[in-house]
Every structure is written in C-alpha cells, then in structure tokens.
Amino acid sequence: MSKVSHCFHCGEPNPTDTNFNVVINNVSQKMCCPGCEAVAQTIVDSGLSSYYEHRTEVANKGDTLIPEELQQLEHYDLEKIQSDFIKKTDNITEITLTIEGISCAACAWLIEKQLRFLPGLMFINVNTTLNRAVIRWDNEQLALSKILLQIQRIGYKAYPFQVNQQEIFYTQQVKSYLRRLGLAGLATMQVMMFAIALYADFFSGMEEEFIHYFRWVSFILATPVLLYSAQPFYANAWRNIRNKTLGMDIPISIALLGAYTASGYATIVGRGEVYFESVSMFTFLLLLGRLLEIRARRKASETSSNLLRLLPSMATLLETVDEVVTHHLIPAKTLMARQRILVKPGETIAVDGIIRQGQSNIEESMLTGEHLPVFKESGDTVYAGTVNVSGILTIEVVNVGNNTLISDIIQLQNSAQKNKPRIEVMADTVSRYFVASLLLIATLTYIAWSIIDADQAFWITLSVLVATCPCALSLATPTALTCATAQLNKQGILIKQHHVLETLNKIQHVVFDKTGTLTQGNFKLLNVNVGNEQQYTEQQCIDLAANLEMNSEHPIAVAFTALHSKKMHITDIENIPSQGLQAIWHDGSNDKLVKLGHAKFCKITFPFASQELLLYLTIDSELVAIFELGDEIRDSAASLVNFCIKKQLNTTMLTGDISNKSEEVANQLAIEKVVKGVSPQQKLAYIQSLQQTQQVMMIGDGINDAPVLAGAHVSIALATGTDIAKNSADVILLGSDLQKISLLVDNARQTTRIIKENLGWAIGYNLIIVPLAVMGLVPPYVAVLGMSFSSLIVVSNSLRLLK
C-alpha cells in the first residue's frame, strides 16, 4: 500500500485524485484542496514563508474560496511571523515598512494623513528617500493587518522591510522602467523621423493623403507610449486625485494626455497640428529622469540594507548528546539564547554572544568604522555581523535577530528619520501648495495666450506644466539627511535624534565628562594604604570594596572586581552618584555601616594628598583604607580639544571627581574651565545656566550622565553595545576614537551647506523657469529636460555626502 501524503498547510490527508501544489522555500509542497493552496500561496506571495519554519502546529483547513484582501493581510498578525520584523515594548509595537508607489512628498503626506485616523496609531513617519515608513501603535487597539489594509486602500502596497524583499522590489521596479523607457525610446526615434521631415518641409510636393498617412503612423506609434510607458505618471496622478491631494504627476499627466488628445483629434479630422513626437519624447525624458532618480535614491538608502546583508543565514550549532559533541548547520534565526555555536576563521558571526572557548582577532569595522581587528578571548562579548579573523571560537548565544546590536543600529537609523527637521517640514508644505499654484498659473497662461496668439497657447501651457519641479524642493532636505546619516554610520557614529545635524552648526560651548570620556575609564589600583591600627588586612579592604562596587556600573568598579577573592554578606547597598557607595556589612558578630567614595562623602577631615584619584573606605565612620587609582587620557582627547579651540568653541570639564586629577587632565588637554565634585543634578543645573546664553554640546560616557545628556542641546555618548538602546544621548559613538566627533561636526556643516544648495537650486530654478515658460521662451523639450534633471541635480548633490 502506498504511503498517504498529508497537506503541508493543514496536515489532513491529500486525496489521491487531486494535484494542488505550492512552492515554499524552493520546495514544491502538496496541498489537500484549493482553499489550502490559496492560503499557502498568499502566505508565500506576502513574503511570509518563515511562518512554516517557526510554526509548532499545523494551520486550520483553508476556505474553498480565495481569501479577501483582509484575510490575506491577517497573516501578518501571527505572532510567530511578526517576531521577524517588529519591536515590542509593553503594548506598544513598532515596525518599519517598505511602501511601493511613493514618488514625492505628497505621497508621504497622504499616507501619514490617512493612517492618523486609525484608533490606536501613535506615530507614523514616511521617508520619501528610502520608500519606508516607521509606525508605532497600541497592539491592544489596532492590528498590523488593519494598518496594511488602510495603506492598500489608498493605492499603495506595504509590507515589512526585509532586505531580500527590498532587493526584489527594486529590481522589478528598475526592469519595469527600463521596459517602458525602451518602448518610449524606440517610438520617439520613429515618430521624430516623420516629425522632422514634416517640419523641414521635406514632403513638399507630396500629395496630402501621404502626409496624412504619416500622421496616422505617428498616431499608432505614440499610442503604446501614452498607454504603457507613461502609466506610472497616470497611476500616481489618479491616486492623488482619488484621495484629494495634489502631486507633481497631475500636471505631467494633464500635459501628456492634453497633447495626445489634441493630436489625435487633429489626425482624425484631418486638420490642425499634431504633437505625437512631443508626447513620445516627453515620456522618454521623464522616464529617464525618474529612473536615474530611483537609482540615486537607492544609493543613498543602501547602507542599512548592506548592514543586514552582513548577517549569515546559517550557523554551526554545537550540541552535546551522551557526552558527544555534534555539529549541525541550521538557520541562524532559529538559534536561541544559551545555545552554543562554532565560528571558524574567516566566518561572520551570526549572533551577539559571549566567547566560551578560544581566542581570536575580531574585525568590527562595520560597527565602529575602525579597521584594525580587536583581540578577544574567553569571556569577551562579540557581535553579529563582525568577522572572526584568526582562531576557532565557541560562542554562547545571547541575542539573535531583532535583539542584536546590528538591529539596534538599523533601528537608530530609522529613529533618526522619525521626526522631520523644521526645514524639511517647510519644504514639504511649500511643495504641496506649489502644485495648486502651478495649475492655476497654467490655466491663466492658456487664457492669456489664447488672446495673444491662439496657435502658441497650447505649446506654452504645456511648457508651464512640465517645466516646474516641486519634487526637487521636497527632495532637497531628506536626501541630504539620509546620505549624511549613512556616511556617519559607516564611521561608527549613530544619530538618534533628527535635529542633531541642524543644531550642531550653532554649537558654541562643548562640555566634557572626564572619567570614561576624556580618560579611558580603565582604572588600575595603584596603591592601598591601610589604617595604622591594621584591624583589617589589605586583601580584606579590597574584598570589601569589590563587593560594594559589584553593584555599580562606574568604570572604577572594574579595578576592584578583578582583584577580589571573597564574597561578603552585604545588604542595603545605596549608590549615590558622583559621591560613592554605602551598605550594611554583616561580618558575623554585628552589622557595620561601610562607605566607599570621595573624602567629602566619607567625612574625611584631612584628605590624603595625591595627583591620582583617591577613594576612601570607612567602617562605622572609621577610616580603614585609602585606595589610589590611575586612569590614562585617551589618545584622541587632545585632538578633539584642539579641534574645538580651532573652531573657537568654549570648553569645560564637568566631573564628579573631586581629586586633583581633574585639574591635571584639564591642563594637559588645554581645557579652559574645570567644574568638579558635582552630582548629576548639579551637572544639569550648570548646563542649563550655560544654555541661557549659548548653544551647548555635552560629551559623556552614557552611564551616570543621563540627566545632563538629555538636557543639552546636543549630547554625545561613548557607548558599548549594551548601552546603545537605552542611552539618553542624541548621538552614540561606537568605538573609542573621540576624533569622530570632529568628523561629525564637519559632516553637519557640510550637510547644512548642501541642503542650502539644494533648496537654493530648487527655488531658484522654479523662480526663473516659470516666468520664462509663461512668456513662451522655453520650448517643451527644454522644459521636460529641466524638470527631470532638476530633481536629479538635487539627489546627485546630496550623494556627495557619501564620499
């Protein structure tokens, strides 16, 4: 008896006399009925094949009819599928969507306007450069399928941003434009042959019926250009009209359809002028401009896609069965925390994890922009997307997929685009009203020229419609900002807030934290001075300090925790920022109050003299030990301070350290002012006092500086992978090179200059071209070239930021 196969979708037996199949992950799978076949095909077409990899139970049997649009989109509500592309915090869900069909700022405005009516939607921002939208909503009030359905109903197609899907969409879009462009180019060449001959009077003496014949041939050749090649312009225009908004493709469509209709009428009735060569040529040039613009936008947006491509799809899982270690090659996204993987030399690490065995040099340039490999050994943290250069490593999985550092970086890229700078909002608003003004000007132009010279009225109106370019205005700012943030990301500089590049140009005062910012934060215990009574040994004092510092994130803690040898019973630990730690020590006989910190905190009347950082250990208010710690200045600190001096920026060191080390560091680096021994609240108060007269940038280590980082006009933090998602700073530096801050400032100034150039070109071009077109001084082919290349010039100028 032959073995009965079961439906891959619902698990029921497949009837022997049916043949329903769906290709899932490149394998043809049998289905039991048309309903299951339709549902499975919908899941595959929506890019959700991973549903079948992650499901733990088979699905319900599909309906016998193909599901409606909402039923298709409801697959996105499945939790197992959503885990691949959403971020959740409590009931708040965030997603980045790819949206097909966006062509200008009006499209973005329309999508944002329509979705804001949905109950439970908390935030939406559409980026016209990337063709992506960042959306946040309350999961209890709104489902993802409803959001996708609403976008679909206004004429766009949306799906979760995934690199492979984005690549497929881009390839299909380019191929579609090339086909349309090829047809328009061939037709233009043929029609132009007849048009030039007619205009040059090459057919003089020829019978009128032959001339009329050539007009009909031109009519036939121009028709597929108008109906097929120009289709993207009509689709966008109809979408705008249906949703009662004005986009740039409306005047373009009016011009094309007007010229074609007038020419068709003249051909049929046998009198009047024909403009078929103009219709074909306009379409060809417009498509060429749009295609070049798409490719330029693609170059600006490919950085985050390239980051995701660094992640390997497979990983070698290590499993121990009966004390025998086995190796299995499995999909990397199926890995779970605490599992172990093997990474060979030359392989890319698939997860964030901790090295449990082996040592190697790790190439982290994709994170930090620094190309020298970093030596790592057992106990060190490694990140997904980095490359194992030399040794064989066994890595324990900590984070996979959306929870990895590389995903956080991409999330920060999107976060930087969430809110638009004032200048971009203004440009978008102007471009929307610009189209309405253009249609009014074109109408008045036609009326005026109908009176002045009726034969020229149509041509001149056509030029007015196609010459102007609000698209260049709406692209001026977002393309520059996208290119700037992409280039900064390559350097290991992550921008979290939209205003950073705009505000950096106004900075007048730079404030530095000392420990972990200007210094390396790698403290070493140089000396231990135990009290004269010698009631406690040096090791006991170190152990006591280490047990206290285990509860601190300050870099000082590392100096003690590396040396301690005994666990002590300590409770009621209290961390007083910028002062010290105190706790109750249960030493077996009675409870004692232990303090570790600065002299003032420990109530030391006569502090010990030293150029190094001093910490005092007291037990029940009795001084038992003085710890002397050393910390080295970062190699790049002097370069950054010199850069500030060169740019005539005021400098201040703001630190909680009350030792003489603060003045020593400030003098070595030529920092103008030192404010020491201040708490986080006092730091914030000092920054606020500066902000009354100056624009202030704060640079800290992102650990104890949260209030002051949040309060400064621009804040920058040096952060590790664990800090990145929770940091209060506007900018995060990956790596330890402070010179990147000078790159950031220079990049901000260049970005502002390019935005001004873009806006200057876009506004200047339109102010010049509109009067010239109205006066009849701009031929239609020059008008269409000007409009196409106006947008291209803006995008190309922005691409200079990627160099």
Q: List low-pLDDT spans.
A: 63-70
How much helical structure, as a percent, in the residues? 40-55%
- Distance between the amino and carboxyl termini: 68 Å
Can you give the mean pLDDT?
79
**SSE class:** alpha+beta
Strand tally, please? 29
Spatial order of the strands in the main sheet? 17-29-28-27-18-25-26
Beta-strand share of residues? 15-25%
Number of helices: 26
List keywords for this structure.
803 residues, alpha+beta, seven-stranded mixed sheet, 47% helix
Task: Give an overview in words.
The protein has 803 residues and is α+β, with helices and mostly antiparallel strands. Helix 8 packs parallel to helix 11, helix 10 runs antiparallel to helix 11 and helix 11 runs parallel beside helix 26 (780-799). It has 26 helices and 29 strands. The protein starts with 19 loop residues before the first strand and ends with a helix. The model is unreliable at 63-70 (pLDDT under 50). The strands form six sheets. It has a seven-stranded mixed beta sheet with strand order 17-29-28-27-18-25-26, with helices on both faces. Strands 9-8-10-16-11-14 form a six-stranded antiparallel beta sheet, with no helix packed on it. Strands 19-24-23-22-21-20 form a six-stranded antiparallel beta sheet. The chain is globular and about 125 Å long.
